Amino acid sequence: MPARPGARLAHVTDHGFETRAIHAGQEPDPRTGAVVPAIYATSTYKQDGVGGLREGYEYSRSANPTRTALEECLASLEQGSRGFAFASGLAAEDTLLRALTRPGQHVVIPDDAYGGTYRLFEGVEKHWGLAYTPVSVTDVDAVRDAIRPGETRIVWVETPTNPLLNIADIQAVADVAHKADALLVVDNTFASPYLQQPLTHGADIVVHSTTKYAGGHSDVVGGALVVRDAEHAEPIAYHQNAVGAVAGPFDSWLVLRGLKTLGLRMDRHSHNAEQIVDFLQGRDEVSEVIYPGLAEHPGREIAKRQMKRFGGMVSFRMRDGEQAAVDLVNRTELFTLAESLGGVESLIEHPCRMTHASAAGSPLEVPPDLVRLSVGIETGSDLVADLEHAFEASKA
Ligand SMILES: *Cc1c(COP(=O)(O)O)cnc(C)c1O
Fold it and tell me: How many other CB atoms sit within 10 Å of the CB of residue 12?
């Protein structure tokens, strides 16, 4: 393997989050002065004599300067030692599992994991010989009981979870995992590194679907891993190159561009979400509003400790059941009916038949009366009015 290209991280590690989001890994180009990292649309690099690599670049599966910039920025934002960018969140997850587990080992996963993560374990990794147990990761004792000593290699946590917005205590689960010599992996997609930095609470590796808040504009599919210890960087770097599910230069550039405004966006997502939660709490049609910032949310105190704010995802249950949920999601106009989340535009969906349809009949099945919102950064009062109109139209 060539030496790691780039490594322009050190000079910004003392700075605040927003500064690092804009500068980490992204010095002006020394030749042209270009302020923004270029999209290096190249597969290969001229060598100055055999093996004479310039800054370590040899072939773009192994490394590409645009991807390096993104990887350094992500590592800085998550306060990790090294970042890796992939073609999708699931590609990142699969590479992580290839790199750090072997057939015969076992993983503990959340019982309300992202549907695609569950499908990866059930439909792919299981056939490779990797066993898994879904548990409620909000329950530290349940996690401890699910661990198989000597066999469990990874405890996998999402917090907040998708779509039920359960909160896991990262530090407590890290302690339980480490006592059993297992690693703690946190899927930080929902919070983003602006709201939560799991590596600072004891996690070993952070996973992202950069498709969501990191990219933030619903115009790219991507994934990332950030590791705390160099020890775990080695096998992941090897597998990133050996498996090859890397982020392309244009996709890397889009995510890097998105990261620059992550802090601004997350504050606005959180602000709008709070307004919508207030509104939903006043509606008779809604039997339960689920948001980690609510006093009655069982994870509120933990969320307050490990998150800066409570984020842009809001879920709620319709008193009249599945059909009422389906009717509502069909009637909004500003809230677009679509899967995915984390973009500037507001989205609405019915998890049971959409994002979580692949979990039907499994322990990860979600309630049929559930509606999930990805609250965007539009004018908050317009979003409230759109929902109000949809509720009223459903009544008529
Ligand atoms: C979307 C998502 C993923 C998968 O990422 P892709 O980019 O779609 O492959 C993983 N975890 C969570 C929490 C997600 O929302």
Answer: 20
